[in-house]
Amino acid sequence: MCGHVEIGEQKDIKIITRDGGSYTPKNNGGGNPGSMLPVVTDAVPDKVQQYRWGLLSLDDNRVHSKHKHARIESLFLVPLWRELVGKKHCVVRIQAFFEYNKEQERTYRVERTDGQPFYIAGLWDVWFDIKTGILLPTFTMITMEPNAAMAQIHDRMPAILERNDIKTWINGNYTGEQRVAFLRSKPCPPENLKITIHKQTL
Question: How far is residue 156's CA from residue 80's CA, in Å, rounded to a whole number?
Fold first, then answer.
């Protein structure tokens, strides 16, 4: 599920560094788990920062992560996710994502019909590398049941937010239960998605 994304243009984004500095990132065509992507968190809701895709646990390392996605149905069941719900919410901005359908032997590109970026609900944390003493900001994307359009190619889809709904997901005045219920109550309409064949396996 969504193991590759297109980040798209970032000329309108200013990244805030941990020391308070800022810079405009270069446009990056693609991102995979382990890549740094533009993220807004509930801790610093007015700033865009770069976070690594994939939460890390004690039995992970900086290359691999089992937690690049978090199922919305299990947010309160999996200990790693349960610790973050209601405390560390984020939104990830991407232009498109790709899904491989094994039965059809095709890779599909999914984007918005209006050409605007996707805003994906997620959870974030900071991982401490004991060996180097480095703090690494990380995130996971939340997934949910597919809408009618996505169901044609995959059994899951990212939890997509409309831009006006971002402030609710990262609003710390709401409980985790309230924010997850809000997310589940506003699934992405099928007509908002443009799905095209990206690659056909021969």
Answer: 21
CA-based end-to-end distance of the chain = 21
What are all long-range contacts of 132-138, with beta carbons under 8 Å and residues at least 24 apart? Answer: 135/18, 136/52, 136/56, 136/62, 137/39, 137/49, 137/50, 137/51, 137/52, 138/51, 138/52, 138/53, 138/54, 138/55, 138/56, 138/65
Do residues 25 and 51 make contact, with C-beta atoms less than 8 angstroms apart?
Answer: no
Buried/exposed code over 19-37 (b: 16+ C-beta within 10 A; e: otherwise): eeeeeeeeebeebebebbb
Query: What's the sign of the alpha-carbon dihedral 139, 102, 150, 185?
Result: negative
- Give the total residue count for the chain: 202
pTM above 0.90, yes or no: no
pLDDT tens column, 144-169 = 999 999 999 999 999 999 999 999 99
Q: Checking DSSP bridges between strand 134-144 and strand 49-53, what pairing results, if any?
A: parallel
pLDDT for 14 equals: 56
Maximum distance among all alpha carbons in the chain? 52
